[in-house]
Specification:
Strand content: 5-15%
Number of domains: 3
Strand order of the largest sheet: 3-2-1-4-5-6
Order of helices and strands: EHEHHEHEHEHEHHHHHHHHEHHEE
Number of strands: 9
CATH architecture of the largest domain: 3-Layer(aba) Sandwich
Radius of gyration: 32 Å
Largest sheet: 6 strands, parallel
Structural class: alpha/beta
Mean pLDDT: 73
CATH topology of the largest domain: Rossmann fold
Low-confidence stretches: 147-154, 180-200, 225-245
Distance between the termini: 64 Å
CATH class of the largest domain: Alpha Beta
Helix content: 40-55%
Shape: elongated
């Protein structure tokens, strides 16, 4: 007797694109299996993006309105366990590039259910196929390789190179001005004040007798008040340096997360995943700390317990 596999299709819309979902549905429908349950989970912003594909394939989109970056993952995990325990489901298909579902996959297999996974190429973590082979019955990467994936790393490298290379040059140049002024003051005391009054001094010098040379000497000894402003230059250069480095960091974030360019709210968990994949953010780095340093360009929403981020503009 012919047996049709009953499949529960669960989609993590926060971690895959619409094109990847269409390709997965096409593969499943071509296999002749029955898509008994079709559910997608994601943020409220993703609901509008996936509206057309969900309408075309009768997929229920369940938006997450709860606080916290993992609200979508938890909601999908709860439904997966309930479907397997209460419904006659032969296989669960998880469409996501997130690696947080490993405990769920292991539990579903313990309940006697086959678990298949699909991830997005270029968005899945490094070695995700190797790691998922340990828990999934089958895992496939969908979608063409993104050419810009290699380009994404360039801004991050530029930021690190610019931060590492730029500071020594202004700091090395800035101290030379005070040192040169000290050397000139010791060698020729009259030369330092002439720098600030270069026009009037030469005209008065020929007619000035000996008494005129004495008062300038006293005024020259008082000139350190003007000279004290010179050491403030390294601080000024440091500020200019920070402003020069900042746009490169912002460009790196926008390259990694193109969805931020339009000024719309984007969930922090998706942004953190993209930034870690391209190396802009370390695995232990905090997304909120990064955007607080770039608060003139990015806004965390809400401010007390951020869940999303918006690009303010350049």
């Amino acid at each position: 007797m012919d047996h049709t596999t009953r499949i529960a299709l669960l989609i993590d819309a926060d971690n895959v694109s619409v094109d990847v979902l269409r390709e997965v549905i096409h593969r499943l429908q071509a296999s002749g299996d029955r898509l008994q349950h079709r559910r997608a989970y994601g943020s409220v912003q993703k609901a509008g993006e996936f509206a057309e594909v969900c309408r075309d394939h009768a997929i229920r989109f369940l938006p997450s309105t709860f606080a916290g970056p993992n609200a979508t993952d938890i909601a999908m995990a709860i439904d997966a366990i309930e479907l397997v325990l209460r419904q006659p489901v032969d296989e669960v298909v998880i469409v996501s590039s997130d690696m947080d579902y490993s405990p769920l996959i292991v539990r579903l297999r313990e309940l006697g259910c086959r678990v298949t996974g699909y991830g997005q190429q270029g968005k899945s973590g490094r070695d995700i196929e190797r790691d998922y082979e340990r828990v999934y019955d089958q895992f496939s990467v969908v979608g063409p390789a993104k050419p810009r994936a290699a380009v994404k790393r360039a801004p991050a490298a530029e930021v690190r190179a610019e931060v590492a290379a730029s500071p020594p040059s202004p700091r090395a140049k800035a101290p030379r001005a005070p040192r040169l002024a000290k050397a000139q003051k010791l060698a020729v005391p009259a030369h330092v004040p002439e720098l600030s009054m270069a026009v009037p001094r030469p005209a008065a010098a020929p007619a000035a007798p000996v008494p005129q040379t004495v008062p300038p000497a006293r005024s020259r000894t008082r000139r350190p008040a003007a000279k004290t402003a010179v050491p403030a230059q390294p601080t000024g250069t440091g500020t200019v340096l920070a402003a020069a480095v900042l746009p490169a960091a912002v460009a790196a974030v926008l390259e990694a997360c193109p969805g931020l360019r339009g000024g719309a709210l984007v969930r922090l968990n998706g942004v953190a995943k993209a930034l870690r994949d391209v190396g802009v953010l370390s695995q232990s780095g905090r997304t909120t700390s990064l955007f607080k340093k770039l608060e003139s360009h990015f806004e965390l929403v809400p401010a007390d317990k951020p869940e999303s981020v918006r690009f303010r503009g350049a």
